[in-house]
Amino acid sequence: MTNQAGEAAKAIVRRNTEEVQGKGDFELFEELFADDFVDHTPQPGVSADKDGVRLLYKGLRASFPDLHAEIHWQAVEGGLVTTYKIYHGTHLGTFLGIEPTGRKIAFEAVDAMRVQNGTITDHWGVGNLYALVQQIKGEAGPAIG
């Protein structure tokens, strides 16, 4: 992959983080994700396809309407873009059965997204949801910047 192609792949992933997840632009979601997209690490109860990711993103935005991520770094190798980011938001909707608390949250995530022909085709990722649940339950303050 050329440096230019690598930068283009990083930009696609960044647009997903900033514009789809951070601003709720689901028209852009339809453009960025391939129809045959596969999530190799889906969240429990969510299908491992494009519909499942759409459902996950919409659920997160309903629980945390101001959800946004600070991207700290991205690396690309062979069309696979790895991103380290910290999500921030306010718990204003039910999340994992926990009623809204109004608490501010911050949690880390690392994911890898394969970009082919200008669309996201695959995802692998981990998010520190344990820290998130602790924060909304008031068991720990935000430990992340």
From TrEMBL:
<dbReference type="Pfam" id="PF07366">
    <property type="entry name" value="SnoaL"/>
</dbReference>
<protein>
    <submittedName>
        <fullName>Ester cyclase</fullName>
    </submittedName>
</protein>
<dbReference type="InterPro" id="IPR009959">
    <property type="entry name" value="Cyclase_SnoaL-like"/>
</dbReference>
<dbReference type="GO" id="GO:0030638">
    <property type="term" value="P:polyketide metabolic process"/>
</dbReference>
<dbReference type="InterPro" id="IPR032710">
    <property type="entry name" value="NTF2-like_dom_sf"/>
</dbReference>
